[in-house]
Structure formats: C-alpha cells, structure tokens
Design brief:
It is a single chain. This protein has a 3-stranded antiparallel sheet with strand order 1-2-3, with helices on both faces. The protein has a domain at 125-266. It is built from 14 helices and 3 strands. By secondary structure, the protein is mainly α. It is globular and about 75 Å long.
Length: 266
C-alpha cells in the first residue's frame, strides 16, 4: 500500500469533513463532497465535536447558555479541529477562543474554561502513591531543606490574579443552588484552585497565590529551601509551614520514597 497516498487521502478527507457546509474542500474530494450522504456524515462529525466540547466544558455551558456555547464551539472547531481520536481531550485552545469571543462581557469566561480543562486533566491523569501527611515529620531541618517534593500526577492548580474564578467555576460546575445564588454578592478579587483525584473522584478546593507558587516551585524541581525562598519573596506574609501542611493533608505530593531517603543521608 502506498502510505504517502493514504496519508494524503486521509488528510484531504478530514479537511473536507471539517469544512463548513457549502465550502469547497480539497480538489481531490470534490466528487466525494458531491455525494448526498457526505453532508450527513460531515454534519454528524461536526455535531460530535461540538457535543464533546459541551461535555468537556460544562461550567462554561451553564454560564453562557446552549445557543451561545454551540456557536462558539462551531467557530473553535473551524480553527482548531481535533487532533486526537479521544474527544475527552478535545478543547485545547478553547479558553483562548472564548476570550476572543466574550471580550469584556465575560472577562472571567476563559478562566472558567481553563478550570474545566484542568478538571479533565485531573480526571484522566496517571495514578501514583500519595505522600503521607506525616512523611516529613522525621526529617532533620537540613534534610528537610534539601528535600524535593514532586506534585502528584493528578494535581493541577491555577491562580487568577484578578477574578474570583474558583468561586464562579465551582458554583457552575457543581450546580449547587446556594453557591449559584451567592455569586452576585461575590467579592471581586483573585482566587486560585487546586484539583486532585482522591478515591477515583476529582476534588477541587480553593488555593491562594502562595500555595500555587509553592507547587510551581516544586514542579520546577526546586528543593524545599529554594522553593520556600521563592515563595516568601513573592508572598512575604505567607505562613509557609501551615501552607505545606495544608498541601500534604490534601495529598498534593507524590510519594517518592527514594527522595526522602536521599534527604536523610548525611
């Protein structure tokens, strides 16, 4: 089989499928596009992609309504067709599409979409042992200082400096009537979110800027001493010990016993 020819056909066929109704596709697909059944197939593909975006971004859907969402999703599909057969992952760049479409009307919409995407990333992340909350208790100060903590694979976090994205997102994601009713009185200030998968369920909670900064530093491979220095430079009022204890209790770190054993070595 001529693999180059097959690759060209597949690329042209996909381009024709994702083209708008009535829009010309690749010349090689003209005869195929003229077939009555092709329009039905194309419409089915378009609907499947838009349905996937609805399923992957339920908080955005609740905020803007079905009609606005599906129009935005169709525009995103034209510019960013799926690159993975698993549509559970579809939606990369959707936050940017929404930011351009929403403008000043919904300045927080892109942030809400980002958290919906992080929810999915947490849901499908690889599993790994969780570092016990008391794992650092036996370390001497010098050993603790050079310990490197790895965020758990299911851990995802994001801080938004301007908008209360966590509150807006979680009220719409959960659909909790009390949280939704409280949104008009929301204090308009920055918020962050930490997502983890615990017992096969995604859990989300607020996390301040210092907490997100600490996880950023750990993800970069910094030892705790250097991570603490970076966090305190940006957030001098932070209670670092309390913050670290909070993240340990939440299960935000991966259990890498060899790292702790190395820290205990003289």
């Amino acid at each position: 089989m001529n693999t180059a020819l097959a690759s060209t056909f597949e690329r042209d066929f996909a381009a024709a499928l994702l083209a708008d109704a009535g829009a010309p596709g690749p010349a090689a697909m003209a005869a195929l596009q003229a077939q009555p059944g092709f329009a039905i197939y194309r419409n089915t593909v378009h609907k499947g992609c838009i349905d996937a975006l609805e399923a992957n971004f339920p908080s955005v859907l609740r905020l803007v309504g079905v009609d606005w969402f599906r129009a935005a999703a169709a525009q995103h599909l034209r510019a960013h067709p799926p690159t993975d057969a698993c549509l559970l992952r579809y939606g990369e760049g959707f936050a940017q599409t929404l930011a351009a479409l929403a403008g000043d009307d919904w300045p927080y919409l892109a942030g809400v979409a980002m958290l919906d995407a992080l929810w999915t990333a947490t849901h499908i992340a690889a599993d790994a042992p969780v570092l016990p909350a008391d794992a650092l208790a036996a370390l001497a100060p010098q050993a603790l200082a050079r310990t490197r903590l790895q965020p758990h694979p299911t851990a995802h976090w994001q801080h938004f400096a301007q908008w209360p994205i966590h509150s807006i997102w979680w009220a719409n994601r959960s659909g909790d009537p009390g949280l939704l009713a409280a949104l008009p009185a929301l204090t308009w200030q920055g918020e962050g979110t930490l997502l983890l998968r615990v017992d096969d369920a995604v859990q989300a909670g607020p996390l301040d800027a210092a907490g997100c900064a600490l996880l950023d530093a750990c993800a970069q491979g910094l030892c705790l001493e250097d991570a603490a220095t970076a966090v305190l430079q940006a957030h001098p009022q932070c209670d670092l010990a309390a913050l670290l204890a909070q993240l340990l209790r939440a299960g935000a770190f991966r259990d890498s016993s060899h790292t702790l054993e190395a820290s205990l070595m003289p």
